[in-house]
Write a structure and sequence with these properties.
- The protein contains 5 helices and 24 strands.
- The protein is α+β, with helices and mostly antiparallel strands and about 425 residues long.
- It folds into 2 domains: about 290 residues, Immunoglobulin-like (Sandwich); about 90 residues, no CATH class.
- About 30% of the residues are buried.
- The N terminus and C terminus are likely disordered.
Length: about 425
C-alpha cells in the first residue's frame, strides 16, 4: 500500500486560505448558512455600515454552502459544496429533483451536516459549468452530467465521475482511474486465504461483491465464517501523495468493479448520493471521512487490558484460584468473563429445567454477589457476565413474557396462519 509522505503537501488545516475573490460570480448560485458579521460601531452608524457591507461584498466573500443544479432531460445533478475540499452530490433520473434552496438528503450513516461552505466559490464557463473553490475545480458536462474533478492545490486531475444506467433499478457511477493506481477501503471482504492485500486493483482481487441481497453477511471462508461488511468509502491513490476519497452514501448493497477502465460501482436507489473529497494525504482523507460519518465511541481504558475467560467458572473459588496464580506469575489481570454457570447453567436435556433466561445469580455457587463484586473492584478486577436471549419454557419468566406477547413468534403456513412462540434451541429455551 502506498502511503504518501505527510510532507509532500502542507496540511490544508494549517495553511492560510486564499483571499476571497471580489468579482461577482458569472451566474447566481444558491448560498446558505451565512455567517453573521459582528461590528462594534456607534449605534447611529450601524444601519449605514451594514448596508454598505452588503452592497460591497459579493456572494463569494462570505463562506456559505453553495448548491448548483444541472438538468439533462429527466436526469439531474446537484452539487453541494460544503468546504473547499468537499463536495456532496446527488444524481438521478427521477427529475426534476429538489431545488437548490434545499439541503441534499443524507442517510443515517452521515453524522455531520453543518459544514460552513467553501471559503471562496465561483462559476464560469459556458452555462456556468466550471465550478471553483480554493482547493477544487469541478467541470460538469451538462448533457451527460459527468463531472471532472481537479485538485487545484497540486494541479492534479483526480477523476471523471459519470452516471451509469440511471433509468434502471440497478444503477451506478463510473470513475476514470486517471493517474490513480491503487484503490483501498470499501469495508471487509476476504478473498484469498493468507493474503492480506487490501488493494482492489490487484489481479484476481478486483471486484468487491456484496455479502448477500442486502449487503452485509457472514460468509463461509477457509473453513470458517467471515464478515462481509460494506463501508462504502473508497481511497484512490496514485504516485507520491496523489489521492482522493469517494464516500457513497447508499444503504443498499453495492458492487464495485476495478477490473476495467473506467472503474464502476452499482447499487439500488432512486438517487445516487455521495461525497468526493480531496486532501494532502491518506491520513488527511481518513480524518475527513471520520468527521463526516462520526467517530465511534471508545470503550473504557480497562477494556483494553487482559480479561480471562473459560467455559466456565463454576464458583467464586475457581476465579480466586486463577487470579492468585496469574498475579503470582506477574500477569496484569484486569477482569474475568463468566459464562452461563453464573446463573445456574444449562444441564443435559431432560435431566432438570434449564436456568437459561433467568439472569439471576446461582447463590449456591456464587453467594453474596454484591459483596464479592465490590471486593474484586477494590482489587482492580472487573467482572463481565454473559447474557442470553433464550428463555427456558419451564421458567416463570417464560410464562409472563408469553402472556405479554414479548417473545419472538413463528407463523405457520396452514389455514389461518396461526403464530406461536418460536422454539430457537433444542435444549429447551425458546
Amino acid at each position: 500500500m502506498k502511503i504518501p509522505a505527510s510532507g509532500d503537501r502542507p496540511d490544508r488545516r494549517h495553511r492560510p486560505r486564499p483571499a476571497p475573490r471580489l468579482q461577482p460570480s458569472v451566474t447566481q448560485t444558491q448560498s446558505t448558512n451565512r455567517r453573521p458579521v459582528r461590528l462594534k460601531l456607534p449605534q447611529a452608524a450601524v444601519g449605514t455600515a451594514l448596508l454598505a457591507l452588503a452592497w460591497c461584498l459579493p456572494s463569494s466573500a462570505l463562506a456559505a454552502v453553495e448548491r448548483v443544479k444541472f438538468q439533462s432531460g429527466d436526469q439531474y445533478l446537484i452539487l453541494e459544496f460544503l468546504r473547499d475540499d468537499l463536495v456532496h452530490f446527488e444524481v438521478s433520473a427521477k427529475g426534476p429533483g429538489p431545488a437548490t434552496a434545499t439541503a441534499l438528503a443524507t442517510a443515517p450513516q452521515v453524522a455531520k451536516t453543518n459544514y460552513p461552505g467553501p471559503a471562496s466559490f465561483t462559476k464560469s464557463g459556458p452555462g456556468g459549468t466550471t465550478l471553483n473553490t480554493a482547493e477544487m475545480k469541478v467541470v460538469v458536462d451538462p448533457t451527460s452530467l459527468c463531472l471532472a474533478v481537479t485538485d487545484k492545490v497540486r494541479g492534479l486531475a483526480l477523476t471523471t465521475l459519470c452516471p451509469l444506467n440511471l433509468a434502471q433499478d440497478w444503477k451506478g457511477l463510473t470513475l476514470a482511474p486517471g493517474s490513480m493506481q491503487d484503490a483501498y477501503g470499501l469495508g471487509e471482504q476476504l478473498i484469498t486465504p493468507g493474503n492480506p492485500d487490501g488493494n482492489w486493483t490487484t489481479a484476481n482481487h478486483q471486484v468487491r461483491q456484496p455479502g448477500d441481497n442486502y449487503g452485509n453477511q457472514m460468509i463461509g471462508f477457509n473453513g470458517g465464517a467471515a464478515g462481509n461488511a460494506q463501508f462504502p468509502i473508497l481511497y484512490a491513490l496514485g504516485a507520491g501523495s496523489a489521492n482522493y476519497a469517494l464516500f457513497l452514501d447508499q444503504v443498499y448493497k453495492q458492487r464495485w468493479d476495478f477490473s476495467g477502465n473506467p472503474w464502476q460501482v452499482e447499487t439500488w436507489g432512486d438517487q445516487i448520493r455521495g461525497y468526493l473529497m480531496t486532501g494532502a494525504d491518506l491520513p488527511n482523507l481518513r480524518q475527513d471521512y471520520m468527521e463526516l460519518t462520526g467517530r465511534p465511541p471508545v470503550p473504557p481504558k480497562k477494556m483494553f487490558g487482559l480479561w480471562v475467560s473459560e467455559y466456565g467458572y463454576d464458583n467464586w473459588q475457581e476465579i480466586d484460584d486463577k487470579l492468585a496464580a496469574l498475579r503470582a506469575d506477574g500477569f496484569p489481570v484486569d477482569g474475568f468473563v463468566l459464562d452461563l454457570q453464573w446463573f445456574g447453567g444449562v444441564p443435559a436435556i431432560g435431566t432438570k429445567p434449564s436456568r437459561m433466561g433467568s439472569l439471576t445469580w446461582d447463590l449456591a455457587k456464587f453467594p453474596e454477589p454484591a459483596k464479592k463484586l465490590a471486593d474484586y473492584a477494590d482489587k482492580g478486577i472487573g467482572i463481565m457476565t454473559i447474557e442470553e436471549s433464550y428463555i427456558d419454557k419451564s421458567l416463570p419468566e417464560h410464562t409472563e413474557l408469553t402472556a405479554r406477547e414479548f417473545l419472538v413468534k413463528q407463523c405457520k403456513n396452514g389455514v389461518g396462519g396461526a403464530c406461536e412462540s418460536a422454539t430457537m434451541w433444542s435444549a429447551g429455551p425458546s
